[in-house]
Input
Amino acid sequence: MDRNLALEFVRVTEAAAIAASAWIGKGDKKNADQAAVDAMRLRLNRIDFSGVIVIGEGEKDEAPMLFTGEHVGKKTTPKLDLAVDPLEATDSVALGRYNALSVIVTGPQGSLLSAPDMYMEKLAVGPKAKKAIDLNASVKDNISCVAKALEKDIHDLTIILLERERHEKLIEEIRLTGARVRLITDGDVAGAIAPCLPSSGIDMLMGIGASTEAVLASAAIKAFGGEILARFVPQNTHQEKALKEMKINHTTIFSTDTLTKGTDLTFTATGVIDGPLLFGVKEENGYTITHSLVIRAHSKTLRYMTTHHLL
Output
């Protein structure tokens, strides 16, 4: 992908993050999400490309979400597939909590998993533990194998997961191994990428989260040399039917290479609220300051960008 085009997407996530930041702590996640969606859609439609949202957070009849199948951009070429989350962690923004991002992943047509927005069971690790995880293995065995790969004692291992009622049994199993648990209220894109960052203090992501976030995280994890494994967990007959219509078996395990195919991929994120991946939006001396990350999987380059926007 053209480097200049890759950098265009930073302007998109910056605009969405700034729009969402106006709603931090106001208890209104719907308007925070709407502001991010509107800003992202507006900016995407100013870029010289032809994009299709192949996995997003909404269905076509749930506008104003950027729905799966929506076309964006103002040209007919180049043709790209997009995975988007205009505001990952809406609750964090509404309640003024830790960790929220605006994220886009792009790739050539057919490179990103196109799937319904539903839950997936996930495991994610950094490069050293890439071969150590197995979604069919027990919690104890996965933690033991990761500890061995990282040359750590299990008691020094930190597992990150979403703080959800559905994870109560999983949390108990992790603690029984002796490993530490780090709970986050929202935002498992950053949680999944964190094990790839030596300074994060996180060794592994476990648990169930949304499918969009699995695809988004996969592009960055691939560039870092880590691994994410995921499989769908349909919650009802409607979701089972949706998977069947897309010829997806809910027992299939997806990896970084099947969630995001090839290396002609970009991952772009801008922080809304401080988190393990990026600082959030700040206002200082008449400027709005944003912090973004742009990753090109092909070149394995990571660009951290701090931008000052005149108010």
